[in-house]
Amino acid sequence: MLAVNYRGSTGFGKAFTNAGNGEWAGKMHDDLLDAVQWAVAQGVTTPDNVAIMGGSYGGYASLVGLTFTPDTFKCAVDIVGPANLNTLLATIPPYWTGFYKQAIKRMGDPATAQGKQWLTERSSVTHVDKIRKPLLIGQGANDPRTNRAESSRSSTR
């Protein structure tokens, strides 16, 4: 098992965290793919024996793994990962103002047409037709930020 400190992770300084700004399903995902390539090159695993799993952002990364790079992973486990970034941002409560400002800096601003389009393109629910591998979804029925219907849409493929 690898626990990858992809760009955007905390604990390595502001520059490393800020390197993830605007890189959801982009360079942050590339970091995960680089880790897979490293593990294969080191003989830790084989290309046909790699799974991806995670919770929250890690769940999102798992969904991205199956939708953006469908041939890389043998299977995925998504634990409360947002399938739709627009929905995620729309459900942040008003009293989380600081978090919301940080989130749009990291993901994109749904108040602009460009930001909304970017969020749509980076949402796995937009690319659900590309899922070809097994996917286990752990999601709460009443979770306001990881919409049950959107999560279920990923599992009906």
TrEMBL record:
Keyword Hydrolase: yes
The entry's keywords: Aminopeptidase, Hydrolase, Protease
Every Peptidase S9 prolyl oligopeptidase catalytic domain range: 2-151
Stretch list, region Disordered: 136-157
GO-annotated molecular function: aminopeptidase activity; serine-type endopeptidase activity
A GO BP annotation: proteolysis
Entries under PANTHER family matching the protein: DIPEPTIDYL PEPTIDASE FAMILY MEMBER 6, SERINE PEPTIDASE S9 FAMILY MEMBER
Name of the protein in its database record: Dipeptidyl aminopeptidase BIII
Higher taxonomy: Bacteria, Pseudomonadati, Pseudomonadota, Gammaproteobacteria, Lysobacterales
